[in-house]
Amino acid sequence: MPSSSRRVALLLASVAGFLLSAGTLSAQQATGGAAPAAQPAPLPTPTINSVLKDAPKSEAAAKLAPVAPPPIPTAADRLPVDKLTAPKGFKIEVFASGMTNARSLRVGDKGTVFVSSRLVDKIYAITTDKDGNRQAKPLLTGLFRPNGIALHKGTLYIAELTQISKIDAVEDHLDNPGKPQVIYSDMPKDEPHGWRYLTVGPDDKLYFQIGAPCNICMPPETHAQIRRINLDGSGMEVVARGIRQVVGMDWHPVTRQLYFTENQRDWLSEELPQDKLNRLAHPGKDNFGFPYCHEGDIPDPEFGWGHSCSEFTKPVALLGPHSAPLGMRFYTGHMFPPEYHNAIFIARHGSWNKTHKIGGDIVVATLNKDGSVKSIKPFISGFIANNNYLGRPVDLEIMKDGSLLISDDYNGAVYRVSYAPTRVSTR
User: Fold this and answer.
1) What is the Cα–Cα distance from 56 to 45, expressed in whole angstroms?
2) For residue 427, what pLDDT is reported?
């Protein structure tokens, strides 16, 4: 068997093994105690469009392949919190564990933390009892690629591969939420970049992306875009085009403009192109360049002919080659020092098609008054050690007390970041 075919076969086997074994463990309490076992619902057989098919035929490229997470969540006492570093005064601790492929985060009005997944069929709910003990358990099962979740006025919205549904007053029915009501289903069925990110805008509309169905290709008119719909699923509009894949969006607290991360194409080189942070200033008009232009200034060697990068909307910042920026959140809490107010925390999931991995961290982007980026600095690092992943951050959410939650799909956990200023003795 040729080496490339062998790599694809190994990847398929890995994904299949993960899907079969994922979900067999129940959620655990943050303290490590086991919850009652929950039987997983069967998943449809996934369609795999291998990201390896565009790989160059070189010895170095042949050694690179996507990083498969462990098949079961990591035990709470083995999570890498002691390996993570943050600025002075910040504390990182385990918030909850035992959730297979923990992805998107949302916090309810009553304090419930909802956690989505991408590779398994579940959405989890983390609850806290009167004694402060937390428990994570499956809220919904039998879903397909339920990566995107959003909360608005007590309603939980869920974006699967081909549909968006909702559950009203979800925190009143955590023990029996019922079947979600489908509100929108006009979405492609492509698996590549088919997992959705979901958010509610200041206009009370749902925003989500339809990624490109490939690594690099000329996408159909139905793809490579951000859409918005009314909360009942009506009134679909395309608000941005030319995006390859988006897995993080948030709204500027002052200007109300949409900012989002974007993952750029693979296999152009190890160092190019860089992934992006974008700003949607002209809804319905902005085109961010895919597949013609990458990084804002690199014409694609195949699709860039006849086009100039000047035709397209520039990124507001570059985030490193293949660093895979996913979740992002404007900090609107009051626990952290003033320099973090209205700054953007960005989770970089980390590279896989680089010989020396980068990302696997949280960075913070501070902005100028006009919304442009002033600086990007490290915030939390340590998810990569000796060129191997100890964890992979995905999404972020702000708690009512101003602390920051971070999901880790590699370990199936959520971490909490808090801040307390160092007290200086006056003796």
Assistant:
1) 29
2) 56
